[in-house]
Design a protein that fits this description.
This protein has 240 residues and is mainly β. It has 1 helix and 13 strands. Strand 11 and strand 12 (218-220) form a beta hairpin. The protein starts with 21 loop residues before the first strand and ends with a helix.
Length: 240
């Protein structure tokens, strides 16, 4: 159903499609999704709602879709994500709310799910609560670029023990506190480009290292660090 001018999907559209696993309604003009639209699609695993005009997702919209693994809400008009919105989607792995107008990420909206990929980029958030990342032990990719972040709480990612890819680019971060990356011993890619960071304390990266032998030699898994077009990078260019 991709790329049409659909403005409404009535709740009676899919009740007889009990074996439906993949559904693409992207690129339409849906302003909302009826509460019971997917109530009978218990086998649904993959749902693409990107590039619509959806302004709100009711917390019970996907309550019967416990097998859902992929949900894309990229480029809509979401202004808030309510607590427990994905509570019943215990198998959700991929979640993108990129490029909405989201201003309020409410505490608990990710409770109950163990996703591996989360894209929150291109929104207007400015502040993230440490409680949102406390129990994300399965998360491997986190993209929070371009959301106008100015700072991050100490140890905010400490519960993301399997995180491998973290993008903080295109924000307004001016400083990185030493404890920011505590718990991220598996991190391989870190993006800090297009921020206003003027100085990086060497101890910032100590938390990315793990001890490998009794002599306490430290080895980091970090393979790629990007600071392109940040204030720090421009400062280094002037030095050389």
């Amino acid at each position: 159903m991709k790329g049409n001018n659909i403005t409404d999907v009535h709740p009676s559209t899919f009740p007889h499609n009990s074996k439906l696993t993949h559904l693409d309604i992207s690129g339409n003009k849906l302003p909302f999704v009826h509460l019971h639209t997917f109530s009978f699609n218990r086998e649904l695993q993959w749902l693409d709602l990107q590039n619509n005009t959806i302004t709100d997702i009711h917390p019970s919209t996907c309550r019967n879709n416990s097998k859902m693994e992929y949900l894309d809400l990229y480029s809509n008009l979401l202004s808030v994500i309510h607590p427990n919105t994905f509570r019943y989607n215990v198998n959700l792995k991929f979640l993108s709310v990129r490029n909405n107008i989201t201003l309020d990420i409410t505490t608990g909206f990710l409770s109950g799910i163990n996703h591996t990929y989360w894209d929150l980029s291109g929104n207007s958030i400015r502040y993230l609560n440490i409680s949102e990342f406390g129990n994300q032990g399965q998360l491997e990719t986190l993209i929070i670029s371009g959301i106008m972040l100015q700072s991050l709480e100490p140890c905010i990612f400490i519960g993301c023990t399997k995180l491998r890819n973290l993008s903080l680019s295109s924000n307004r971060i001016s400083g990185i506190i030493i404890s920011l990356f505590y718990g991220l011993e598996q991190l391989e890619q870190l993006g800090l480009s297009k921020n206003v960071i003027l100085e990086l304390n060497p101890l910032v990266f100590d938390s990315l290292s793990t001890s490998t032998n009794p002599q306490n030699h430290q080895v980091s898994t970090l393979k790629h660090l990007s600071i392109i077009r940040s204030a720090l990078f421009l400062f280094l260019l002037r030095l050389f």
